[in-house]
Design goal:
The chain is an alpha/beta fold. It has a domain of about 160 residues: Rossmann fold, CATH 3.40.50.720. About 45% of the residues lie in helices and about 15% in strands. The chain is built from 13 helices and nine strands. The strands form two sheets. A seven-stranded parallel β-sheet has the order 3-2-1-4-5-6-8, sandwiched between helices. Strands 7-9 form a two-stranded parallel sheet. Helix 5 links the parallel strand 5 and strand 6. Helix 1 packs across helix 8 and helix 9 crosses helix 13. It is globular, with a radius of gyration of 19 Å. The protein starts with a strand and ends with a helix. The mean pLDDT is about 95.
């Protein structure tokens, strides 16, 4: 049996749907904090059980009978988040899982300016100490982030953002399908996978150009100082912690942390990954 945590979230639920296309529902289980939110998955025949990273004891039953467990990384940052992910991986190992999978990020490293990348690196180190075979899915930067960042640009004619660098934006549904392949009959990776990314890395200059082409309205890319961008975001209501995390993305991008592209995702999909142009068109639809 394959168990997926966080299956009421966007990536977790998409991964379960992809698994349902590859194997019988009674061979899939999910671990969720609120089973009521998983009613749609229950209707497919998937096994639904309560499991909470913050309550490792709850995971023993949630992971019961697991051959493989996918620990979908949560939103808690810092040592608390690392501890919860490590606890989930240990619970999977204690339940007898033959392999633990974890959703990390393409630039996972301990000295990254991006907070979640540092956390992923520490979680990978914890996984390596458990003793059970593990695979860290080095997922590319989720492309839906672009939709948030281009909001209002067509109306103002200006894409006003901090200095950046190339990013290999990757569609979440592509990653969900690839993760499902790796969980079932795909190639085996001990430790981190190669970066699971789209086949091109683009800057926000490129995004502005594509946005202009798609809409027929000229959108100019304008670079603003980090502090000014932060002030604008918090003034608009974004929590400071979220704004700081997003700014870390720009700092990482201009340091070249997200420009890697790798053919593995396309190989797993059996087709080209969704392009940034298609992402923009979808966002504007």
């Amino acid at each position: 049996m394959i168990i997926v945590t966080g299956a009421t979230g966007a990536l977790g639920s998409a991964t379960v749907r992809a698994l349902l296309d590859r194997m019988p529902a009674d061979q899939i289980g999910v671990s969720v904090r609120d089973t009521a939110k998983a009613a749609d998955l229950a209707a497919t025949g998937v096994r639904i059980r309560t499991g909470d990273f913050a309550d490792p004891a709850s995971l023993a039953r949630a992971f019961e009978g697991a051959d493989r467990v996918l620990v979908v990384s949560g939103s808690t940052l810092g040592p608390d988040g690392v501890a919860m992910h490590a606890a989930a991986a240990r619970a999977a190992a204690d339940a007898g899982a033959e392999r633990v999978f974890y959703t990390a990020h393409q630039n996972t490293k301990a000295d990254s300016p991006v907070a979640f990348s540092v956390d992923h690196a520490h979680t990978e180190a914890a996984l390596a100490e458990i003793g059970t075979p593990w695979t860290s899915l080095r997922n590319g930067f989720y492309a839906h982030t672009v939709g948030w960042l281009i909001a209002g640009a067509t109306e103002t004619g200006e894409l006003l953002l901090p200095e950046d660098g190339p990013i290999s934006w990757t569609a979440r549904e592509d990653l969900a399908l690839a993760d499902a392949v790796l969980l079932t009959d795909g190639p085996t990776f001990d430790g981190p996978t190669p970066a699971l990314t789209a086949t091109e890395a683009v800057t926000f200059e490129d995004v502005a150009r594509t946005l202009s082409e798609v809409t027929g309205t000229t959108v100019r890319r304008t670079v603003i100082a980090d502090d000014e961008w932060l002030a604008r975001q918090t003034a608009a209501g974004m929590p400071d912690a979220a704004a700081q995390m997003m700014l870390g993305m720009f700092r990482g991008a201009r340091a070249g942390e997200f420009d890697e592209v790798d053919p593995l995702l396309a190989q797993l999909l059996g087709r080209e990954p969704v392009s940034i142009r298609a992402i923009i068109e979808r966002t504007l639809a």
